[in-house]
Amino acid sequence: MAEKYDAIVVGAGIGGLAAALMLSHRGRKTLLLEQHGFLGGRLSSFDRGDFHIDLGVHLISRSDKGPVGDVLRRVGIPDPVKYIHVRPRSSYQGKVHTFPHDLKDMVPEKDFTALMNFLSDIRSMPEEKMKEYDDVDLRTFFSQYTQEPMVCAWIESICTIYICVPPALASAGEFMRCLKWEAEARASGYPEGGCSAISNAFGDGIKRFGGEIKLGAKVQKIEVERGSVKGVMVGDELYQSDLVVSNADIKNTVLNLVSADYFPSDYVDYVKGLRYSWSGPVVRVALDKNLTDIHMLAQIGTTDLEGYHNKLENGIIPDELNLMVVVPSNFSAVVAPEGKQLVCVAAFGTGARMTNELKKELIEAILNSTEKIIPGLREHTTWVNTMTWDDLDNMLNEEGAVIGIGQTADQCGDKRPKIKSPIEGLYIVGGEAGGTGVGTELCANSAMEFMDVHCPIA
Ligand SMILES: Cc1cc2nc3c(=O)[nH]c(=O)nc-3n(C[C@H](O)[C@H](O)[C@H](O)COP(=O)(O)OP(=O)(O)OC[C@H]3O[C@@H](n4cnc5c(N)ncnc54)[C@H](O)[C@@H]3O)c2cc1C
């Protein structure tokens, strides 16, 4: 006899973990199924020797003050994760700057004033008003203030780090919310013990409230009968439930796990047409000694943004790269042995059309650029570990996207995929549907939106 659950969650990314945690806290018999042998999806970590490495390159925008902490507070387990806070910094041509004030001496006065006006408008703008700009792209919106290249390069750098799509595509409303919330909270941080500390805290909470977690359990099929969800298949095992919450890729959920035949054809076309966020190679470098006191640094390689992206798309590595550098061992002693450092670098951008040769060249270029930021890097490297978008795609699908479905002007606000699917009892959470905010926080928000607005069981 197949076991019956009140709710089944497919996938233990942060969206799935948050949904399973809140469902089990409600006293519902909840089963969380994860295909891999670890929790967290893009928010997971792994060990290599004595180093503890995050899959991504992470800073949590508002740390415990944001939605990740909100979910834990809702279920009555506040503060299981400690964060080490940091003020994000940027560098240009070897000099380190703080946004926005250091731009004062770098751009004409009128353009600096325009930037400050933009920031002040965001500060005073009610969220209802921001929603009106969900379907306007950031470049168009920001160009009303200034088109000065250096200011635009900084906005692009922040936009890429927040939502991992360029301003020409990004939703202005979404960008403004992310910036406003982070500026108000002043709490960007890295979790003590690495990102797995967050995923494990959620997993522990699920078990504490009686939820069941099965790792290495790949859902092959979501069962549907007469327009309603009935359960899932893992191998030849059926788990029954009238409520299935998918944290898997929306395209995979609709087109494969369920099958397009069960959905209205316009919904299928809509899902097929959704576009993922950007991706980018991640390079992790283990150092045999402490070389840097950098915690987080966004390198702005160039102010010629169009030229930069054109080059990458045409197989030319730009001389200076746009990078996000995080040194997790400077936040948390757990991630590297004493006296050694772990440096993680990402160069976000489109990845889909790159050849293997170009990817190799890009990784070399990332190391060269990072060496300029951290002199002695190559000499003191014990090992280099890289993850390209193909690696990420093989592991977690979604073309190796950093976020999930891109927060672009045509995929935000009312145009964001809906959490409630057209199939009765089937819901989608995480970076795939609903929510708002930066990466991890978008997904935690999506799970809270599911619970508050859609969840059919009290
Ligand atoms: C390089 C990189 C850097 C990043 N930097 C930041 C940052 O600085 N700050 C930030 O907030 N965010 C950052 N992010 C983004 C953030 O990690 C993601 O937005 C977030 O973790 C995605 O969560 P999710 O809920 O969408 O689930 P995902 O992480 O996509 O996980 C989905 C889970 O579902 C499982 N699954 C899929 N199909 C099945 C199936 N059939 N059966 C069972 N299980 C299945 C997968 O194995 C996976 O565990 C970064 C991401 C990357 C890759």
Second-tier CATH architecture of the largest domain: Alpha-Beta Complex
Strand order of the largest sheet: 8-7-16-17-18-15-19
What ligand species are in this complex? flavin-adenine dinucleotide
Strand content: 15-25%
Structural account:
The chain has 14 helices and 20 strands. The radius of gyration is 22 Å and the shape is globular. The chain starts with a strand and ends with a helix. It has two domains: 3-83 and 192-274 and 417-454, FAD/NAD(P)-binding domain; 87-187 and 275-403, Alpha-Beta Complex (Polyamine Oxidase, Chain A, domain 2), CATH 3.90.660. Helices cover 34% and strands 19% of the residues. A seven-stranded mixed sheet has the order 8-7-16-17-18-15-19, sandwiched between helices. Strands 10-3-2-14-20 form a five-stranded parallel sheet, with helices on one face. A four-stranded mixed sheet has the order 1-13-12-11, with helices on one face. With 458 residues, it is an alpha/beta fold. The chain has helices at 14-25, 67-74, 109-124, 127-131, 138-142, 149-163, 172-185, 196-208, 250-259, 265-273, 305-313, 356-373, 389-396, 439-454; strands at 3-4, 7-10, 30-34, 45-48, 51-54, 83-85, 89-92, 95-97, 189-191, 212-215, 219-225, 228-234, 237-240, 244-246, 282-287, 296-300, 323-326, 341-346, 381-387, 426-428. The site of flavin-adenine dinucleotide (FAD) has 38 residues, from helix 1, strand 3, helix 13 and helix 14.
Structural topology:
Blueprint: E1 3-4, E2 7-10, H1 14-25, E3 30-34, E4 45-48, E5 51-54, H2 67-74, E6 83-85, E7 89-92, E8 95-97, H3 109-124, H4 127-131, H5 138-142, H6 149-163, H7 172-185, E9 189-191, H8 196-208, E10 212-215, E11 219-225, E12 228-234, E13 237-240, E14 244-246, H9 250-259, H10 265-273, E15 282-287, E16 296-300, H11 305-313, E17 323-326, E18 341-346, H12 356-373, E19 381-387, H13 389-396, E20 426-428, H14 439-454
Parallel strand pairs: 1-13, 2-3, 2-14, 3-10, 7-16, 14-20
Antiparallel strand pairs: 4-5, 6-9, 7-8, 11-12, 12-13, 15-18, 15-19, 16-17, 17-18
Bound molecules: flavin-adenine dinucleotide (FAD).
